[in-house]
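Worked example

This section walks through a single chain of length 262. The input is the sequence exactly as stored; nothing has been trimmed or padded.
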Amino acid sequence: MTWQTGLTGFLAGLLISVVTSPVRVSGAVFLLPVQLSILHVPNPAVTPTNMLYNIVAGPGALARYRRNGQLTSPLARLLIVGTVPGVILGAIIRVFAIPGPHVFRLVAAAVLLPLGLWLLRRALRPGIADRPPLARRTILGLSVITGAVGGIYGIGGGSILGPILAGRGTPMTQIAPAALAATFVTSLAGAGTYGILALTTTGDIAPHWTLGLLCGAGGLVGGYLGARLQPHLPERALRLLLGALATTLAAVYLFQGLQPQH
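Given that input, the structure is written out below as tokens.
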């Protein structure tokens, strides 16, 4: 890895985190397209490399939530119980079923499109009423599913569940720490799973440690800056920007994924 690539990764993690942290969206969702299209991290190593971002970028916010006593909530424990086995399953699926970039772009589109539409909907209709909260058993089942998707995409499981829970009336004060804790723990489990698979399977599977750590360091700094700047940033405009970006990326990846393989 060249120093230019490392610097690009650090700056990408920083800028993405500054923009995403004020609207409580995981920067890893938008970092993965940067790794794929700009940094050219090979498949499937791009997924665990993306997880390193969560591992390094998350502890600052986790420490803040811990001081506030928000990490011991039943929701956080429930999400972790479901997403950890899910992310291990997702890593196995990623390595053995969809190791190449073609199908993976369809998976990326499937993650980005709902997130983008949710952000746009929230920005354009901020007063929309939420539906009733989900039952614990339903949340546990969704945690396993989203954990598996997170293990394939490289974002942990809590990031995907956040918008779902928010749309069903769970307060953001509960969702944010629980989703972040689940994302951090599942990223640890996912990166470890990919590391073990790399020892027993051929191919570029292990995370690119230096690049992932540099992206995470940028995310750590960016998350702090984003939290400090949050009162001064137009949240509605940020939601519109991120929603449009996620939707556009999903359309691009969907188009590329549906193209015939040569």
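What to look for: The chain is about 75% helix and 0% strand.
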